[in-house]
Amino acid sequence: MALGIQSPGRASIGQKTLRTDRWWLAPLRIGVILAFFVVYATVRIFMNKWYWVDQYEYLTPLYSPCVSESCVPGSSHLGTWFPKFPVFLPLSIITFAVLAGFRGTCYYYRKAGYRSLFFSPAACAVPEPHKSYTGERKFPLVALNLHRYFFYGALVFGVLNVYDGVLAFHGKDGGFGIGLGTLIIWVNLVFLWLYTLSCHACRHIVGGRLKNFSKHPLRYRYWTFVSKLNPKHGTFAMISLFTVILTDFYIMALSAGWFSDLRLFN
Predict the structure, then answer these.
(1) Residue 178 forms part of a structural domain
(2) Contact 234, 108 (CB under 8 A)
(3) Residue 17 located in a structural domain
(4) pTM of the prediction?
(5) Cβ 200 vs Cβ 233: under 8 Å
(6) What pLDDT is stored for residue 118 in this prediction?
(7) Which of 14, 16, 236, 258 could form a disulfide with 253 if both were Cys (CB 3.0 to 4.6 A apart)?
(8) Is-contact 62 51, C-beta < 8 A?
């Protein structure tokens, strides 16, 4: 059965597209980035090792919080809530579920995923290869409407990441210290919070359903701040992917003993 523009009920158009520019370059680039991150994150969460540097108290955001008795000593900042996990179960299963849910249902990533991975459509004036269009009214796409609830979870994990960042100011001989890992962790924190606070759900929660801003001056001020961040939400979304990967890779390399942390102070 013919699909896409040739399927029954669709307009009959002879050409696949009349565009002569390299329209495929943008979705290809974004698709490669998204696919790389998905593969990298999947491999890392199933490794269950090289996520903690005890000497400097560096904990990768992919494993924070580590709350199982399977976690290496010192990495359980919030205690051990669960017994030892089976070998096949990732230590970061809770973190992965919440943060993957937040990013996976994000409005920007939905657009990027539809265009780059599902070609629905890949670009303007380029036909999609699907037989029909149902929107996000049916399972499993209807679950994308849970985004605002995943946002609350992302806020909690953002606070936990800040706590991890404070602990990263740990000296080689105890006390206060700063290393390259500390700076990398905090750069990642900045972009994670910019991505989270620029979220459309955050903007709606802060200023939505208000009939009169003058009666809610604080919420109006927060809404104004978030509204300034919101246009750059897609930019923060992509940059934060790279900062998360960089932070995790650096901590993994230190934990595995591939090289030593560059210390700037103590």
Answers:
(1) yes
(2) yes
(3) no
(4) 0.89
(5) yes
(6) 85
(7) 258
(8) yes
How many structural domains comprise the chain? 1
Kindly list the distances between the CA atom of residue 223 and the CA atoms of 25, 26, 198, 244, in Å, as whole numbers in the listed order.
35, 31, 10, 27
Rounded Cα gap, residues 260 and 252, in angstroms: 11
Omega before 231 within 30 of 0, i.e. cis: no
What are the C-alpha distances in Å from 63 to residues 46, 92, 161, 227, 247? 11, 5, 10, 31, 12
Cβ neighbours of 231 (radius 10 Å) = 9
Q: Tell me the one-letter amino acid at 64.
A: S
Residue 18 within any structural domain of the chain: no
Query: Cα separation of 242 and 207, whole Å?
Result: 30
Residue recorded with tokens 């994000």: 106
Q: Which residue has the tokens 């390399």?
A: 253
- Round to whole Å and give the CA distance between 99 and 125: 33
Q: Which residue has the tokens 């523009």?
A: 5
Q: Give a yes or no: residue 102 inside a domain.
A: yes
Domain span at residue 170 reads: 23-265
